[in-house]
Amino acid sequence: xxxxxxxxxxxxxxxxxxxxxxxxxxxxxxxxxxxxxxxxxxxxxxxxxxxxxxxxxxxxxxxxxxxxxxxxxxxxxxxxxxxxxxxxxxxxxxxxxxxxxxxxxxxxxxxxx
Length: 113
Description:
This protein is an alpha+beta fold. Helix content is 36%, strand content 18%.
């Protein structure tokens, strides 16, 4: 029992000691898009920005203009298949512009403003 209590105390102390990333830098891309990065971003090309944090993790942003009619057509139905097809088109465009880069897993989420 004493060993378990000691282990819980140690783990609690480690959790209290852990510090999250502080001082995120906000990068404004246009009137409607602002993203916070853990480090200063560098402009690689006209529409590509990259940042590297203290752990060596690289964050990249590619700003892709999408015309309103294509976006409304792709999102007019609320089906997952339609959203995935739209995402495939966007990722295909990014891969065509950045052939030297590999794109990892993409997480799709919805933000309600």
